[in-house]
Amino acid sequence: MRLKSVFVVLCGLSLIAFAGAQTKITGSAQCSKPDIEQKVDVPDHPGHSLAISQMKCTWTKPFEIAGVETKDGVDSGVADVHAKGARSQGYYVDTMANGDKAFVRWQGQDMEATSEGKWTYAGGTGKLKGLQGGGTYKGKRADDGTISFDIEGEYTLPQ
Q: How many structural domains is the chain composed of?
């Protein structure tokens, strides 16, 4: 099973809004087949392995905050893979159209064709400095190894 979680997500995660106000967000992203993917088998039972991967994502339904849209990002994750699924966690760095970045931490469960979990903001740069919040994501893998994500949540910025 390939590690393709998140993107995460968490991508949408890099949004900005009115300072101090809790703002709901939703969006969608498409992630490529991993650029980097390594797997190490664990010899305790069939189908058990540890995996690490990195992929690029672009927003198909970007967020726009204060006139700045989410653009693209890089998702890096690890997974504890078993025959019927995987527990995964990682980080997503989202780049806004103006170059600011949002940092996201995510964790979830992966099945053969789906992925879902939770994400939280871990900070940001520029207008996103002090960004906080979190939410959920759901992903669906295509036969070609790409994955599409729907993300929702909320965020706040310091005043």
A: 1
Q: For 94-133, what is each residue's pLDDT tens digit? A: 999 999 999 999 999 999 899 999 999 998 999 888 889 9
The identity of residue 149, as a single letter, is F
Separation of alpha carbons 41 and 29, rounded Å: 30
Question: Domain with 129 in it: what CATH number?
Answer: 2.40.350.10
**Does 11 reside within a domain?**
no
Measured CA to CA in angstroms, residue 126 lies from 16, 47, 67, 140 at distances of 10, 44, 14, 32
Q: How is residue 37 written in tokens?
A: 């993917």
In a domain, 132, yes or no: yes
| pTM given for the model | 0.84
Domain of residue 58 covers 23-152
d(CA 15, CA 24): 10
